[in-house]
Amino acid sequence: MRPIFISLMITISLMFVSSNAYPQCTTWIGLSEEGKITDAYTSFRQQIYKEDYIAAFPFWEIVYNAAPAADGLRTNVYSDGRKMLEFMFNNETNKHKKKALASLILKLLE
Fold this sequence. Notes:
Distance between the termini: 42 Å
Order of helices and strands: HHHHH
Oligomer: single chain
Number of domains: 1
Low-confidence stretches: 13-23
Number of helices: 5
């Protein structure tokens, strides 16, 4: 009986932790600009799929600034953002722009 109780408690604890993984991150659910944000999300994902990171960036910025947790079920705003920003960083020649990109990459890791 005791091992079942311990397993049950671990399961409940894990459910609580996973459901609150990004409690500080905003989702687009219920936001007044939900339609604009979801449209930007769709556009940025289409450009990421084509590996057109330069075209994806402005759409990604809209989503990241308004709802970094997307709908609360997706984490690709961060992972795609990191991939896109690393590509842009590696291909940038202007040292000031490169520094700004590095700061944005580090911000994603906070």
